[in-house]
Write a structure and sequence with these properties.
Length: 413
């Protein structure tokens, strides 16, 4: 009995977001579904390389998957605040499940072509344009502002535990029973999210007063971000990291094949190493989440991440690359969790959908630029030097932004 009581106290003290029933339903569903997403992600990258042998064409897939977010995320933000977020997520998660089953059917029947993957990636991009900012802003409704950072950290822990388990499962499935099963299992994993959403009983925040002019609504949201220095600085930092850092699905498979001269198992191991570091980071953030997001962590984690990218570029053994990926993953989570919670905590309810749509735009919507850039760089100068280039550009941009923010903060004389 005492053990049960101590465990309950430990959860309440350190993972207090789980005391909310609605968040527990959502989180448990995510625990399964995100593993499936990572299984498909690593499998899709390997499938494209197997079909084409081209890092640049692999980069095109990333571009197609995130291009809709780049183009339409701002419009999505206006719509999200006008409808119950639970209903939106039920629709987007169902559509994502159907796409995974279609992909598995094409691979099972040996009908898969490169252009099929491009089209399905584009469709998934349109779904994620609505799904991503909706999920981000839904967390406040099911966990509350007070436990928001803890909830975000727990979601990150789930995501990054999946980043460890998912690539490992994907690599084993590809090696022993076939790549088609990776896509099929991902489709099945969406059922857990849908079940969790059905059981959630929340009081949705829906804007009642809004303009029918969607461009006016977008302009109002952008003006709100620009005039709030905390939101503006965070968005700028996320843009840099989104373009130059989060290109692992492009660079790691190419690096594994062309520099380390390894196959699926080592590719899965390297992706899992990145996830292991991220999981450690997510748990660490969760345990100290009561202190709230801090600006120093935002800048410090971005600098360390950039340095680790450079070190990866100079690695020539998979175990040294894995060590740097662990460190990189840890500070990736410190950065992304701090940025996400900073934006949500400092946003008014009536602007949160639009603020998080801008976050999705610069975090995921910048991926087409990042995918094209990293894919092109890997094609022309090799994946090792592409890592070095991305890390160096990140350092330059971060220090330039620090100077700009300091000048901008000075009062006019």
């Amino acid at each position: 009995m005492n053990l049960k009581k101590h465990f309950k106290m430990f959860i309440e003290d350190n993972f207090h977001a789980l005391t909310h029933k609605n968040f527990r339903y959502y989180w448990i569903g995510q625990c399964v579904s995100v593993i499936g997403t990572w299984v498909q992600s690593v499998s899709q990258s390997w499938l494209v390389l197997s079909l084409t042998g081209s890092p640049f064409l692999l980069g095109i897939i990333g571009t197609m998957q995130f291009l809709p977010i780049t183009l339409f995320s701002l419009f999505a933000g206006v719509a999200i605040d006008r409808f119950p977020k639970k209903k939106i997520l039920l629709i987007t998660q169902t559509l994502s499940m159907l796409l995974a089953f279609i992909m598995s059917a094409l691979v099972f029947t040996h009908s898969i072509k490169y252009y099929h993957i491009v089209i399905l990636a584009l469709f998934l991009g349109f779904i994620n344009t609505i799904d991503m900012p909706t999920r981000q802003s839904f967390i406040v409704e099911i966990a509350g502002k007070e436990d928001l950072m803890n909830a975000i950290a727990l979601n990150s822990a789930t995501f990054n535990l999946a980043r460890i388990v998912g690539p490992a499962i994907g690599a084993l499935l590809m090696a022993y029973i076939g790549i088609a099963w990776c896509f099929f299992l991902n489709g099945l994993s969406f059922l857990t999210v849908l079940c969790g959403l059905i059981y959630i009983e929340s009081k949705p925040y829906v804007r009642k007063n809004f303009s029918n002019n969607i461009f006016k609504e977008i302009k109002d949201g952008l003006k709100y971000i620009f005039n709030n220095s905390v939101l503006f600085e965070t968005v700028c930092m996320v843009t840099v990291i989104g373009i130059f850092v989060f290109n692992y699905n492009i660079l790691i498979p190419v690096f594994t094949k062309n520099v380390l001269h390894q196959q699926e198992k080592i590719y899965g191991f390297l992706m899992s190493s990145l996830g292991a570091g991220s999981l450690i980071g997510a748990v660490m953030v969760s345990l100290r989440s009561k202190s709230g997001p801090k600006k120093l962590i935002l800048f410090g984690s971005s600098i360390i991440t950039a340095v680790m990218l450079i070190f990866i570029g100079f690695s020539r053994t998979y175990y040294t690359a894995a060590i740097f990926l662990v460190i990189n993953g840890l500070f990736n989570i410190y950065f992304s969790t701090t940025a996400n919670s900073t934006l949500q905590v400092n946003s008014k309810d009536e602007y949160r959908g639009r603020v998080m749509s801008v976050y999705s735009l610069v975090f995921a919507g910048s991926a087409p630029l990042g995918s094209l850039f990293s894919g092109y760089a890997a094609d022309k100068i090799g994946s090792a030097w592409a890592f070095v280039l991305c890390g160096s550009l990140t350092l330059v941009c971060v220090f330039m932004l620090m100077i700009i923010f300091k000048i901008r903060a000075k009062p006019a004389t």
